[in-house]
Amino acid sequence: MNIDVQELLQEKEYLDKVIAVEPYHYELFFELRNGYQIPLTITFSPLFPTQLPIVHINEKYHHIPDIPHVMSSGLVCFLDKEGVIWSDIPERTIDFVFDRVERVLISNSPQIEYHREFSYYFGTLEKTEPVFSVYTPEDEPKEISVLAMGGKPFAFLTDDAESRYLLGKLLNANINSRNLVKANYIPLDYTYKGKVPQFDRFWSNEEITNIIRNHISDDTLLKIAKFSMNKKRYFYLLRIPLLTGDQTIIGLWYEKVNHSLSKKVIPLIDESIIDDFKVTPLFVFRNDDTTLIERGGGVRKPLNALLVGCGSVGSDLLFMLARSGIKHFTLIDDDKMKIENSYRHFLGMNKSIESKPKVKLLKEEFENRYPNVHIQTIENEVLDTIENGEIELNDFDLILVAIGDPNIERRLSKLILESSTPAIFTWVEAYGIGGHALVVNNGGKGCYECLIDTELRLYSSFAGKSDVPFIKNMNGCAGSFTPYGSIDSMETALLASRLVFRFLENDIQGNPLVSWKGSSKIFEESGFITSERYKQSTDILNQDDYEYINTSCKVCSNLKDEAYKDDKR
């Protein structure tokens, strides 16, 4: 560090008595805007101002106040650095640091600040035990289960096949009812306004009982009364409404210390047996579905999706949607995974060696990655599948088509319009010059057939007219393929995924076409020309396009121009 930090500190009017204790470490007095002076220590990094200094209240000269964001050691947590940019000018950075420190020290609403950081403070308890949870909190008290290992609670869950399967997949173990013991989930009805447990200050048994009794309705109390048992250990999962409007989840582990007590009890609310149990707080690491989806920015609405086509675009589309929290898919594809496509297919090279059906490999891969995803597979051509009655299009909420074969898509579009289910067609163009996604059957006119002009060309096409097909050939006719890369398929899948999210939010009007545009350099170097539509700006192409709609289309011209309404949504 070539910066004279001590000189910079001494120049600040709000700082006094700056003393260098050792390199990078200083003692000083900080005058707050209310006139109060508080002794601090500040320790700089050699990377200052890129890294911010560490600030403590100097406990040699001042007691450690009981206020939010000040630890028992005196450490002042003045900034959550996520997404914050500060000046790279040292003088300004020092001002920034002390401004944030001052905000902590003179906070006007300390209790709500404690509640805002409830989970953090609860996690500082000296005798807390960590516990995993895949149980999704509900609004009613419920008898649930806990997986106990070595007498200690390890994971909360519902004792049903799906929850046991999910936990077993995550732990790579076989979980069955014999491995589980009973636990109770109790959501408090009223907002908790009291102190937040931290460090060596946990609630007493009596405080816990009072908190529960004072924050539940009479109806909830009657439901809890059914949880009476005679056991050595009791496990509870509590949902607590906070002053911030949020709700936190904590666990409690009761162990009987009075072994002469032999009757059915509820230690959580029985005042007469408070001293007969030892209570250990449980810090809950939430891995339930709601929490994971929220953290991942995913969708919360249910969707039963039919995905037709599991090639490069289809597999990337499945990956994006499964990661977003969508759990129910039916896959249709009659092709096997081949090594020649391994560099642009989600499954990669190792799976292609097996030469197994794509649908089966994708089911195996995704149900292993996301155990709560349920995938049905059909290894068949889609038109045959529909015509032989193996599936009913009306059974799905949304149909996704990623075949890349306009002749099949043309026929499939007509079948979809005979159903009540909306669909999104998506495809990528040769040499990665672009990709498209088209909504159909979402109310009013506009369908795949509308894209096709009298010369049998697609309105959407970025490729200009050519007498030579846009394909490459390496091993004779059997080796023909449309040239594009994995980035092109992912970009196209992303385009379609965003339409799926808009569909779930009821944010699509009618049946738009949307497109993305890539570079035409290799395409043109290969002797081809681009279309007039390719010359449009990216901003225009990314917008919903309805110009393709043919008002005299023989397939959809008889449809009314009104928004699609689905009773299932």
From TrEMBL:
Record-given protein name: THIF-type NAD/FAD binding fold domain-containing protein
**Organism (species):** Filobacillus milosensis
GO annotation, cellular component aspect: cytoplasm
Source organism's superkingdom?
Bacteria
Q: Which GO terms describe its molecular function?
A: nucleotidyltransferase activity; thiosulfate-cyanide sulfurtransferase activity; ubiquitin-like modifier activating enzyme activity
Output the Pfam families linked to this UniProt entry. Answer: ThiF
UniProt cross-references to InterPro entries, sorted A to Z: ThiF/MoeB/HesA, ThiF_NAD_FAD-bd, Ubiquitin-activating_enz
Ranges for domain THIF-type NAD/FAD binding fold come to 305-455
Q: Name one GO biological process term.
A: protein modification by small protein conjugation
